[in-house]
TrEMBL record, chain A:
Protein known as: Xanthine dehydrogenase family protein subunit M
InterPro entries attached to this UniProt entry: CO_DH_flav_C, CO_DH_flav_C_dom_sf, Diverse_Substr_Oxidored, FAD-bd_PCMH, FAD-bd_PCMH-like_sf, FAD-bd_PCMH_sub1, FAD-bd_PCMH_sub2, Mopterin_DH_FAD-bd
A single GO molecular function term of this UniProt record: FAD binding
Alphabetical keyword list: FAD, Flavoprotein, Oxidoreductase
Domain FAD-binding PCMH-type: 1-173
Higher taxonomy: Bacteria, Pseudomonadati, Pseudomonadota, Alphaproteobacteria, Rhodobacterales
Automatic annotation (TrEMBL), chain B:
Alphabetized SUPFAM superfamilies for the sequence: 2Fe-2S ferredoxin-like, CO dehydrogenase ISP C-domain like
Residue stretches making up the 2Fe-2S ferredoxin-type domain: 4-80
Gene3D superfamilies (alphabetical): 3.10.20.30, [2Fe-2S]-binding domain
Presence of the UniProt keyword Transport in the record: no
Keyword terms of this UniProt record: 2Fe-2S, Iron, Iron-sulfur, Metal-binding, Oxidoreductase
Protein name, per record: (2Fe-2S)-binding protein
The keyword Nucleotide-binding belongs to this UniProt entry's keyword annotation: no
The species this protein was found in: Antarcticimicrobium luteum
GO molecular-function terms, A-Z: 2 iron, 2 sulfur cluster binding; metal ion binding; oxidoreductase activity
Record InterPro entries: 2Fe-2S-bd (IPR002888), 2Fe-2S-bd_dom_sf (IPR036884), 2Fe-2S_ferredoxin-like_sf (IPR036010), 2Fe-2S_ferredoxin-type (IPR001041), 2Fe2S_fd_BS (IPR006058), Beta-grasp_dom_sf (IPR012675), Diverse_Oxidoreductases (IPR051452)
Amino acid sequence: MKYYKPATFEEAVALAAGADGVTRILAGGTDVLVQLRSDIVTPDTLIDIKAIPGTHDITRTGAGGWRLGVAVTGAEMSEHAELVRDWPGVVEAMDLIGSTQVQGRATPVGNLCNASPAADSVPAMIAAGAVATVTGPDGSREVAVEEIPVSPGKTSLAKGEMITALTLPPRGENGGDAYLRFIPRTEMDIAVVGCGVNLRVKGDVITEAHMVLGAVAPTAVVVHAAADALVGRTLDDDALQALADLAEASCNPIDDKRGTIKFRTHTAGVLARRAAQIAYTRAKGDQA
Amino acid sequence: MSKTHVTTKVNGDEVEFLCDPRETLLDVLRDRLNLTGAKEGCGTGDCGACSVTVDGRLVCSCLMLGVEAEGKEIGTVEGIATGEELHPLQRKFIEYAALQCGICTPGILVATKALLERTPDPTEEQVRYWLAGNLCRCTGYDKIIRAVMDTAAEMREAS
């Protein structure tokens, strides 16, 4: 295994594009090192991107959104009061991953590139409309987060390509997001079901709605019909029931030791209701 | 395979070592620097027995490469006491018998010291969540939590 610590993304992309065998990008390493230690994936080339300027920064974009460097950790996000105020759902989703120790290293970009169906930060980022900047030998392009994972452990990134930044859109007025997951204990487990909801309201009426489910299909499931079910109405019992029904209908889960198909499907509906209620409360400017 | 030269600071002292890029920081601490306080429990970031601080941030040293320590400041359990004088956490852990086999103790001391530095007056719930990534199979945690709460109270009085 060769270890590189490039000073620029140009250098990192050139290394990745020219490397033979298995290449891994190292940010927090909470997946890469586990796979390395367990002999699941032993990279021939390991590219540590943490020495590249800007990779540790959380900055306001010109439009009023947020740009996250690719080495920004969960702990750094949770400690950033303004980011938490704008996107509490994204931050709480990231914060659910692992222990205090893992939070000190783990990054949302790593969570995305690991392409686990159960990645907690991914449904929340998709619901928020997050965009990844993908840089490769032919330049950079902006890719919606939902288009990065294509199947468990696989991403749409081509050889030599890497994510070089993550952008959350401007929160704007009267918006709120939330993420909930079910695990059989209170900490240190992998999502059995996850649900991210992002709403905008005018008064009590919903004007914009996004819902994304995690761990119930090979990749995160964007429930596009959530907008049809919610926009133009208040979050009353009928709306919540419609949302729960949609969540259940959108599930395509597996049976495994952590949850049966039936349990996962039911739980998706329960989490959809609860996450929507939190997002709605936040959108209206109340405390959730 | 060629080794990489790394310069870092451990418990305030500048140290240099040569390591294979596959070696974790935990391997380096234990096998190259003879700092055997940090323990390898799981090796996959689940148990916290290898907890250290890197530039003040609590991490699992088994989930970080030795080469990543270049230019960093590492804190281990060996740096907690001041000479012969134990850190209040160490004293309270003995007083409360907050350990049995002791494998998890160095990691828990490093983790709780990091907690009390940023949160001098934690609730019991905060301590339990903070330590969710530090597994102990002997104590049932209760004595650990009580030792930490009492240390926090003592340190607040002293400051």
